[in-house]
Specification:
This protein is α/β, with parallel strands linked by helices. The protein contains 6 helices and 11 strands. The chain has helices at residues 17-26, 57-62, 73-85, 131-141, 174-178, 203-223; strands at residues 6-11, 39-41, 47-52, 68-72, 92-97, 103-110, 125-128, 146-149, 165-170, 181-190, 192-197. It binds phosphoribosyl ATP (PRT) and zinc ion.
Length: 224
């Protein structure tokens, strides 16, 4: 990565990509976007964008491969816990919580299933893309349930007989409802964070960073 240009990792395509680009544009940072490109250079500032899958963003920041990242706290915290377990570098600086990508990670059960308290999860298999967040929650609650890792189609797991329950991201709740599931317990609330790698930036990058942060604050304030 460049010593002079600030590198920002953001989601290539998905729920966060439009808003991430919109935020940078509102800060006056200009790009010639090419849909296929991994790396995009700003034409107005010493800033480069690295467009990747959201799951790769925390690791790229924690490993110091990029300077900044825009990522959902669900993905960030999951990677942090995973790296903690594996005793890998998991440090980063939290710069700002941003006003997009809001969702919650919730445990949901088939609608017909009784649920009175968290103890009702004992002995169940719970499908999730976030096993570390789920296991931490279960441990805190002292409930002995099993997480089953699925990277996609989590909401169909109970009907397919792969699990008894799910622990999945929810925003409107329509997906759970369409799959005959009822949201029972929120375990984590998430929005997008701007994060920075843990070590010091070069003077040139730090200067660009200060300018960018001031503009982000201006944009956020104007939205309120
Ligand atoms: O390809 P890549 O790995 O980059 O993308 P992805 O498919 O892993 O992620 P993507 O684009 O779906 O989501 C990126 C991030 O957006 C997530 O990590 C969250 O931080 C945030 N986010 C906000 C959401 C949602 N809202 C959301 N509703 N991510 C996923 N969903 C899904 C959820 O998994 C479920 O399938 O939407 C469905 C539920 O939505 P409702 O409205 O029906 O409740
Ligand atoms: Zn992803």
């Amino acid at each position: 990565m460049s010593k002079q240009r600030l590198t920002i990792a953001l989601q290539k395509s998905g729920r966060l990509s439009k808003e991430s680009i919109k935020l940078l544009s509102a800060c006056g940072v200009k790009f010639n976007m090419h849909e296929a490109r991994l790396m995009v250079h700003s034409t107005s500032h010493p800033i480069d964008l690295l467009r990747v899958r959201d799951d790769d963003i925390p690791g790229l920041v924690m490993d110091g491969v990029v300077d900044l990242g825009l990522v959902g706290e669900n993905v960030l915290e999951e990677e942090c816990l995973e790296r903690q377990m594996r005793q890998q570098a998991n440090e980063y600086r939290s710069l700002r919580r941003l006003d997009f990508g809001h969702c919650r990670l919730s445990i949901a059960l088939p609608t017909e299933q009784q649920f009175n308290s968290i103890e009702d999860l004992a002995g169940l298999k719970i499908a999730t893309t976030y096993p570390r967040l789920l296991e931490r929650y279960l441990q805190e609650q002292g409930v002995n349930a099993k997480s089953v890792m699925l990277t996609g189609s989590v909401e169909v797991a109970p009907r397919a007989g792969l699990a008894d329950a799910v622990c999945d991201l929810v925003s409107t709740g329509a997906t759970l409802e369409a799959n005959g599931l009822r949201e029972q317990q929120v375990i984590f609330r998430s929005q997008v964070q701007l994060i920075q790698r843990a070590d010091e930036l070069s003077a040139a990058k730090q200067q660009m960073m200060d300018t960018l942060l001031a503009r982000i604050d201006g944009v956020q304030l104007a939205k309120e």
